[in-house]
Amino acid sequence: MKIATALLSLVLVPVAAFAQTAPQVALSQEEAAIVARVEANFDDSITFLENVVNINSGTMNHEGVREVGHAHTEPFEALGFDVDWIEQDKVDRAGHFRAMKKGKTGASLLLIGHLDTVFAKDGDFQEWRRDGDRATGPGVVDMKGGNVAILYALKALDDLGLIGDANITVFMTGDEEMSGKPISKSRKDLLAVAKSADVALNFEGGAKGEVVTSRRGASGWTLTTTGVRAHSSVVFSEEVGAGAIFEMGRILNGFYEALADEEYLTFNPGVLVGGTDVMYDETATKGSAFGKTNVVAQKSVVDGGLRFISEEQKEAARAKMREIVEAHLPQTGAEISFQDSYPAMAPTQGNMALLEIVSDVSEDLGQGPLKGNDPSKRGAADISFVAPHVLASMDGLGPQGGNAHTPDEWLDVPSVKDATARAALLIYRLTREDAPRFAEH
């Protein structure tokens, strides 16, 4: 295993760094045994996956989400983890599954999954179906397959007595697909465990030859413009000015001209209503407007989204947007507000160093090298909340499939074994006494 020299220069947390170990180019006897154990447990892992896929756990089916969570309780307790269920009734969500094993060797790991899917209890897509190496079912790759990779990676290590004195927390949220609000409450417990971890690994569905080293953050913005209501025959006059809709057009075009070419930054005005009388429901993101072609528009509202690669990029974009908003057309006004949602998972030094280690694991398993992703191709996820608080983070470590969030969601069944073996070896290498490790925070 080649340990990245960049590990010696991590700067995400003061005085924290990986230590170097001797290079390793092939599987050790213990590692070969781990892979064999994953193989031996493979059929059981697919049976377990089939069982949990057949439990509907659409985010708002609280009973189903809890049932999927509780299905993991006994298996994790059998591995020596302390398991609890964190209720989230105050944000109208089912809750989160947490399993913890306290230890001192190697890096402190946080392994992340989620129990919920986008498929409602009364929908048509409810069952696991398998045809050879291909399986379909709600959440089969997003992300019950990833949850199974976590469980059976740890089981392979436990079967061989190799978890040892590792410090590992498994956290599976019950509302990843539709987070409870406010975020400060629904992600409070996830953030708490993140702040005591060194490395966070998320097991959303993977892609061949690639893992996720960065994700863009997501936030919202609402822009309201006002104008003087008057007969259109006097529009542009000194007394009436341009009206609310012209002011809205000026601002949106200003955003486009100033920011559209910035790498990894996107902003989208998704809903627009304007006219004489305007009603807009921000929660439902829908509205109505009344106006006439011979009346100057009095009000206009746009609701939009903003995606960014770092907090610095987000704040710089917001500052520019505010600047553009403030330069009004005659007799108009405008106000913009911003709403935070998901932070960015930036492509940090730590993530790049971790990528080298994971890629080495993949190559040693014969799965080929891995590269980091293009962040513009990935949306936000629970790892986004965690990434700013750990020294290194990674996502996309689950099995491969496609068509997530659709009734055609599918899983490449053999890739469950590949993802499990990779996870098991990665956990093993990061939690050994002589493994790459982090200094005390």
UniProtKB/TrEMBL annotation:
| The protein, known as | M20/M25/M40 family metallo-hydrolase
* Residues in coiled coil: none
Return any one Pfam family short name.
Peptidase_M20
Q: Which part of the chain is the Peptidase M20 dimerisation domain?
A: 214-331
- Quote the PANTHER family the UniProt record gives: ACETYLORNITHINE DEACETYLASE, ARGE_DAPE-RELATED DEACYLASE
Q: Which InterPro entries match?
A: Bact_exopeptidase_dim_dom, Peptidase_M20, Peptidase_M20_dimer, Peptidase_M20A
What Gene3D superfamilies does this protein's entry cite?
A: 3.30.70.360, Zn peptidases
- Which UniProt keywords are present, listed alphabetically? Hydrolase, Metal-binding, Signal
Please state the span of the N-terminal signal peptide per the UniProt entry.
1-19
Q: Which organism is it from?
A: Hyphococcus lacteus
